[in-house]
Amino acid sequence: MNKKQAWLFVTVIAGLILLLTGCNTATPEISPTPTEATPTDALLRTRGKLFSTSGECAYCHTGMTDAAGQDVSIDSAWRSTMMANSTRDPYYRASVRSEVLTNPEHQAAIEKKCSICHIGMAYHTAENDGTAIAMLPNEGFLDKSHALYPFAADGVSCSLCHQITASGLGTTDSFSGEYDIDRTTAQGERVVFGHFAIDDATAIIMSNASGFNPQQADHVKQAEICAVCHNLFTPYITNEGDWSTELFPEQTPHLEWQHSVYQKGTSCQGCHMPAAEGEVMLANTGSPPRSPFPQHTFAGGNAYMISLLSNNRVALGVTATREQLEDTRLSILGLLQEKSARLSVTADQEESTLTVKVNTVVQTGHKFPSSFPSRRVWLHVIVKDSAEKIIFESGGWKPNGMILENDNDLDGTLYEPHYSVITSPDQIQIYETIIGDPNGEVTTTLLRAQTYLKDNRLLPAGFDKTTADEAIAVCGEALTDQDFKAGGDQVLYQIPAAPGAYTVEVELLYQSIGYRWAEKFRDEENPEGAEFYGYTDAMANSPILIASQSVTVK
Question: How distant, in Å, are the alpha carbons of 110, 120, 123, 229 from that of 115?
Fold first, then answer.
């Protein structure tokens, strides 16, 4: 095919795409109310002044396979992730309502702060148009009658992330949702940034089909583009009822990564957008094979919420199929169970004391667990005698998510300290954050969070706790524990035991929503909280097994 024939081919293809997409520039196409017979498996399609919803992109970026023949379509991978479902997440919605109920005079500021990352397309459109930024029903973005609902429902979508410019990335000014979006260029002329260089013919097709002009940009490959929302600093409400000028580091995985050995060679995308096998054609319209292609799987640490979304996909309007959600859940489990941490356990007996040494080795590029402070990891240790009778257990759990004997689960004003030596079943090594309010009291109200009373989350390799910035500091007894250091932790269990044969079983367990965080809406007049419990009361909050090992002492 010569250049003229190629040009004619491109022109014909572009015309066909325009016919298929219908040049949708104003009226949103919203899927009908879903039922089990007609699930919401079509992505929303609408174009606005600044953004297009995912359905506008999915037409071309589906039907993609890698060298092994595996489906690596952008739309089918993304739509079952927490990114795509950032506004369908009932825990997020209940949390925002809870903060508003606690501080009603600050509702507008709360909803603005909580929507810039989770509901970015609606947020920026409203701010650009000079209209109110509100998210909760009955007047906010999440109300189905709201003009910006299609953009809100689409979560963290294609044309949001791919329009983030390189301006200020990596600086503190870009954190907490302060990413830069071009608001001046007219629709039809706007640029979206991508991983690969685009030839003119392909660019014409994409421009005609989507209304965006593709441009290669290295910043989309860098961790700093993730940091704009995954370094989150929030003000708190003072005792006098005012916004603080001081900011609280609610979640800082990017800063933790920067303080580790991984910042020299492995970006966020390296783990959370793993490369497909071999070359991939990026669009079904025909494009040069590309490699390495970063899959849009966005596996993180919230398998529990993916299961909830799958169990209630119709009620929550989830566009992904159950099969797609299961693929995402399995990807998360793979990341947690294969690339997060491992255990090394030894046991010795001397006279009447059984000493168990548990070493946890961390494999993540940030603290483990990281991000939202509801997450926790703990050690479950069981010792059995030769008759299989349990003589010691620390860290057992209930199906409702409680850790047995955990001070914080039993009493929300207390918490379990960090241990270097454990001698009693009511002592549990829990790697977690505990938040303190301006009075130094334990809280799960985010807008009362002034400081960390405890942060002994496991540290990545290369993390120096003595030089770590205040935002990522170790807090509590772990700071002085010499066995708690970069790459893991060591705990000694000293258990009274008569001479004999024993089996020691150790598990490292993980929860994305710990018991105290899961129960925080229970006594509130919180409609979103009631909806959340309508889903969660029907499913167990069982922890995920990260690693396990057993040893025998004779």
Answer: 9, 6, 6, 11
